[in-house]
Amino acid sequence: MSRVAPIKAALPQHRGRLRHPTGVPETDAKPLPVSSSERPQFPGEQKQLFREVLEGMNASGVPYVVSGAFALQAHTGIWRDTKDLDLFLEQRHVGAALQSLRDDGFECEVCDPVWLAKAHRGDFFVDLITGMSNGVISVDASWIERAIDRPVMGVPSQVLGAEELIASKLFVTRRERFDGADICHVIHGTRGEFDWQRLLGIVGEHWEVLLWSLILFHYIYPAHGNYVPSAIWDDLLGRFQRELRDGSTAPFRGSLIDENMFAIDVKEWGFADELKRYRDRRLENAAQCDPECEPAA
Questions:
Q1: Which end of the chain is flanked by fewer CB atoms within 10 Å, N or C?
Q2: Residue 129 is assigned to a structural domain of this protein
Q3: CB of 202 within 8 A of CB of 163?
Q4: DSSP letters spanning 150-213
Q5: Per the domain annotation, does 19 fall within a domain?
Q6: Strands 84-88 and 65-66
Q7: Domain presence at residue 112
Q8: Using one digit for the tens of pLDDT, what is the confidence trace for 105-116?
């Protein structure tokens, strides 16, 4: 018997129509960000709310790390005006985090048990993220352990490391949103001085998506191709050449990139739905993580 039901029953589900089967609410449409080094003038209410959330999470003992706009700024110097506070955490800790936020007066909902829960008060949101919407990459304890100490809104916090930040953006590749520029900016902002083997370990068999991003980086910053170590270029390009020479047994993976743009391949042309396979696997894991089963330390 599935145990996903307790997760969904614990909180009201999102009432807006969903734009994607991966749980992105249509009502969450946001204006396109514009890159700038100028710090936004965050409203006082927003700053107080974010501080309250971070202080509450610290007090709760729930392991988490800040991502989103604040992590991007830490690694690139780019600021974004955002109404969202993105927190990454393990799936097993979502229940404790949501309980802490409910106790603090937030309205909470599980938008998609594969990867996303939300809490909001007024116009400001907290996103609790446990992985990528396609189910390929998930947050584990190492993401929090490797985080970088950095205050956020004046509260002692940790932000996501460069390796995990890049990994978290590799599959944001839909027609209406593409995080390739963020990946390029992280590589440029860090001058590639991070643990590339760690990044390769996270992406695993999906290394071609990383290679795609690195080629884009080289196209954008041709004078800085050396920010990607030559050993990484040799490794990935060598793998690619062998795939071309020897052929590949990998399945069709278009739905992992954009389930809408590649829907015809699955629904009409008979290609396998890798998105469903990965998401089903994550749902099985979610079914084993009742929201109240893992109290904070």
A1: N
A2: yes
A3: yes
A4: --BTTB--EE--HHHHHHHHTT-EETTEE-HHHHHHHHHHHTT-S-HHHHHHHHGGGHHHHHHH
A5: yes
A6: antiparallel
A7: yes
A8: 999 999 999 999
- Is 102 a member of any domain? yes
Domains of the chain: total:
1
The residues with which 177 forms a beta bridge, in sequence order, are: 174
Contact 87, 93 (CB under 8 A): no
Q: What is the distance between the alpha carbons of residues 190 and 193, in angstroms, rounded to a whole number?
A: 6
All residues at 6 or more sequence positions from 84 whose CB lies less than 8 Å from its CB, including other chains: 68, 69, 124, 125, 126, 127
pLDDT digits (tens, 9 = 90+) for 68-118: 999 999 999 999 988 899 999 999 999 999 999 999 999 999 999 999 999
Confirm if 76 and 185 have CB atoms less than 8 A apart.
Answer: yes
Of 186, 151, 190, residue with least CA distance to 168: 186
- The answer to whether 194 and 163 have CB atoms below 8 angstroms apart is yes
113 Cβ contact partners less than 8 Å away, ≥ 6 residues apart = 4, 7, 8, 283, 286
Task: Find the CATH number of the domain harbouring 135.
Answer: 3.30.460.40
Token reading at 282: 């994550």
Expressed as residue numbers, the domain containing 135 is: 1-160
Residue tagged 């991502």 (tokens): 67
**Residue 135: φ, ψ to 5°:** 80, 0
Q: Please answer whether residues 56 and 101 qualify as being in contact, where contact means their C-beta atoms are separated by less than 8 angstroms.
A: yes
